[in-house]
């Protein structure tokens, strides 16, 4: 191997305690271009990682090879169980997948049938993303997944149709264009908690600063999932809130107003552009390694605190950490 200093393959390349560092990291692993890398390349990346951790990498391996392998590995393999994930459920496909459903949703917002179909399509995609990126240590049963999927889809459709009917004769066409965003936000508030309900029920693992497991906490699950919901809403907010203004301006042009066939592709491409920028920004708002004060655990989960105290032999850290998920 070329003479390069050995480094921690699994350590982040940028400081994850800063917003800019997190944005750089997520932009690196959620790049939509990674969707076009072949499956064999991803498997080779995992193999090279394994060899490097064992100190058995090929002699011709250099730092560039390792960085590319790290990028592919962290893009495609689940952090809990190292399983290879479906491309359609990865964060690198999120901008494309959401654009393909949000663009038409924002175009055909006047039709009840179209509202139901595109809300169903969007929630089907989001449910698959949530399942792909689930906490592998808190698996859901098929019944729980079905309930989560049906509930989120119903929440999105009820919200969209309810707002559509309520605003139909009361609001301007511009205000009506914001109904899809309200529906998507409402569905996120249902879909994500239900897909991760076992974390609420059984708590999630919490760790000391050195990475040692010290207990479990339901309060940590509440905090982590709440941050994920907020991140997802922020992710789609700019595109879904700016596009109505852009469409109003574009429709003032005769050529655009007449060529209605172009409206859905135009909104899809524009929303896709917004999402490409917003995916790493939204994920970077909150640290992946999230902290929670043990004093809060003591206040709200006295039984868990006693277990933590016993495990730590009375020397309870001020803060414990957990993986909040994406």
Automatic annotation (TrEMBL):
Keyword Transport: yes
Gene Ontology annotations of biological process type: serine import into mitochondrion
Transmembrane stretches, start-end: 146-166, 229-247, 268-286
Keywords: Amino-acid transport, Membrane, Mitochondrion, Transmembrane, Transmembrane helix, Transport
InterPro entries: Mtc
Topological category with respect to the lipid bilayer: Multi-pass membrane protein
UniProt GO MF annotations: monoatomic ion transmembrane transporter activity
NCBIfam families associated with the record: mtc
Descriptive protein name: Sidoreflexin
Taxonomic source organism: Laodelphax striatellus
